[in-house]
Amino acid sequence: MKKLQHYSAPKFLSFNPEKQFAALDKLVSELETALSDEAQRTALIEHLQELKPLVSEPLPEKLCLLLRELHPKLSPHQIMNKLYTYHDGALRKDSQLAIRSGDGKLVSDPVQRQKAARITVICDNLRSVFNVGSIFRTCECLGIKEILLCGISPTPEHSNMEKTAMGTQSLVTWRKYDNTGEAIAYCRQQGCQICALETAEGAQSVFQTAFQLPLALLVGNESLGIEPGWLHLCDKVVQLPQLGWKNSLNVGVATAITLYQIMFGA
Asked: In sequence order, what are the residues at sequence separation of 6 or more whose Cβ sits closer than 8 angstroms to the Cβ of residue 175?
């Protein structure tokens, strides 16, 4: 657990008013990153309330209002809303906040875990680290076997992957290939059925497809889709049905929907 910032009463009283305000604001910023941890959240709010009477000059109006309304019994969502108002809507990015963990029911069905361990995702020249990070997060949630990153697809070494994958990039096995053909060949050696997720003519709906395991799901570039040459190497081409004007979803979203259908669909 991260060690919390703490100011003793003598130390806080030794600060001039400007430094006292800065210290309180720093604690408020820490509160923002500890929303998902009840113990840390409570400790920070209690510490803020301890320091408030020690301030030598009237508090800035917004800070005074925030401290008056903060209470340990508030829910994380209620606190988040108050922090949002305090910062004029400029809360930290999701990647800077603590991830909620350990408070949900973990699905430990061995059959489902064995199923997920026979699924591989192949990324064909994905451009966006945001999308690749999103795919890492989905694959970690489902226990997918591995991700094959091909061509220009960013790897976990990318400086922004930590922000987009929310730490899951270190929890999922991955391999890097210069081109997608090599990744497909590797999956063939593993006995995988190769399915391409693409809005191509003749593609089946993912909700009407019988997927066979072991399986490799091939997903493509955000703008150009999967390179046509690789589609001919696939056993099936599947797509997500669209009812609106736009004919495709974001690749990270589409991959998540498809993997969940493969895992839990009828």
From this structure: 146, 147, 148, 149, 183, 186
